[in-house]
Amino acid sequence: MSDVDPTLEDDEPVEPPTVEELLDLLEVSYSERDEFLDLARRTQAEFENYRKRAATQAVDDLVRATAGMVEQLLPVLDACDSALAHGAQEVEPISTALMQALEKQGLVRLEPMGEEFDPKCHEAVMHEPSFEEDDETTVVTDVMRPGYMWKGHVVRPAMVKVRG
Questions:
Q1: Domain 14-105 falls in which CATH fold?
Q2: Least confident of 7-11, 51-55, 87-91, 151-155
Q3: What pTM was estimated for this model as a whole?
Q4: Top-level CATH class of 107-164?
């Protein structure tokens, strides 16, 4: 069997397409090109968005993981504070070095004495009434346990006594 198109006869000349047919083919080609170009641009934009989301998520995961590590160190800081409060001054260099190292990495100690109560950063465990009638603000009057923020996120709220 031959690979020749049976509709073509060897004797008959093939007519070239008309200008209108060529213009129609060209219009179809332009249309297909525009569709593929649009698809390529959308795919590229979706990939860029995915790449940015993945990078942001990786940073968030790292911050969350290190926050967990810092959270595990908070009892050590509390023990150092307690030892210092009971007069064990030999703990001070270790406590100071640990706190400075953590502060360099993004830890912030929350000691809100005299500040307005903020439920995002403070945990009120005691309350005393305000004797001033026009005072509508709730103020921290004592800090029982300091709170900590890690890179802008509260790791542990400060345990406080409030008035108001």
A1: Hemagglutinin Ectodomain; Chain B (3.90.20)
A2: 7-11
A3: 0.64
A4: mainly beta
